[in-house]
Amino acid sequence: MSAAGLTPQEAALWADRAGFPMPAGRHAAVAATANHIHSVVAILRELDFGDTPPAAAYRAGEEKSDAAV
Description:
Blueprint: H1 8-17, H2 27-46
Helix pairs in contact: 1-2
């Protein structure tokens, strides 16, 4: 996908290549959804998680209670 975003025609092409041909009326909606997902993932890639432990390190019930709101 280009930096300019996925066009409806490209969405149709990629869907067809993946074996999921779709009606012409769906191309624009699929392209818009894919572009939105791409923009969210791009933001997530910019985040610095630093010393954040992986999810496997979390133990439910062992978190410290804090009454601050």
